Amino acid sequence: MPAPNDSHIRERLRAAGLRVTAGRVAVYSHLLEATSPLRHGDLVGALEHLHLDQATVYRNLMDLTTAGLVQRTDIGDHSWRFEAVEHAGHGGAHHPHFVCTVCGDVQCLDDIAVSFTDHHGQVHTVGKRPVEVQLRGTCDNCA
C-alpha cells in the first residue's frame, strides 16, 4: 500500500478533530513512513530541516496520540517510542515488537501472530485487543 499523500493526511487529522498545521502534517507523515517505532529525539532530528523545535514535536506527538492516530510504546528503557496506528505495515492493529538487548533497536513484528490464554481460559490474539508484547533477544547485526 502506498504512503498516504498530503491531502489524505490532512483529511485524517481533520477527521480526528485536530487542526491541520505544517508541523502536525510533518510529524504524522514521518510516522506513517517509518518502519519501526521512533523516539521523540529521532523525530526532532529527522524534521530539523523544517525548524520544528523539540516542544512543538512533542506537543504534536501528544495530540496525535490522544486523537488515536499514533500509539506510544515503552520498551522498558524509559523512552517512549511512537508509531502511526494506520499505515501499510500495521493496518491499525496492535502488534508485537522485537527489542535487541545489545543495541536497543526496536522492530515491528507484523507477520507474527501472538495469542495468549487469560485467567478465564479464553484465548486472545494480539492485534484484536490493545495488548503490548515485546520479544527480547539479539538482532542479526549484534549476533
Question: What features would you describe in this structure?
Answer:
This protein is an alpha+beta fold and 143 residues long. It folds into 2 domains: 1-91, Winged helix-like DNA-binding domain superfamily/Winged helix DNA-binding domain (Arc Repressor Mutant, subunit A, Orthogonal Bundle), CATH 1.10.10.10; 93-143, Dna Ligase, domain 1, CATH 3.30.1490. Helices cover 29% and strands 20% of the residues. It contains 4 helices and 8 strands; from the N terminus they run ααβααβββββββ. The strands form 3 sheets. A 3-stranded antiparallel β-sheet has the order 1-3-2. It has a 3-stranded mixed β-sheet with strand order 5-4-8, with no helix packed on it. A hairpin with a 5-residue loop joins strand 4 (97-100) and strand 5. Helix 1 (6-15) crosses helix 2 (22-33). It is globular. The termini are far apart.
Query: Which structural class best describes the helix and strand composition?
Result: alpha+beta
Amino-to-carboxy terminus distance: 32 Å
What is the mean pLDDT? 82
**Major beta-sheet overview:** 3 strands, antiparallel
* SSE run: HHEHHEEEEEEE
Question: Quick summary of this structure?
Answer:
The protein is α+β, with helices and mostly antiparallel strands. The protein has 4 helices and 8 strands; from the N terminus they run ααβααβββββββ.
SSE order and pairing:
Layout: H1 6-15, H2 22-33, E1 38-39, H3 40-46, H4 54-66, E2 70-74, E3 80-84, E4 97-100, E5 106-108, E6 115-117, E7 123-125, E8 134-137
Parallel strand pairs: 4-8
Antiparallel strand pairs: 1-3, 2-3, 4-5, 6-7
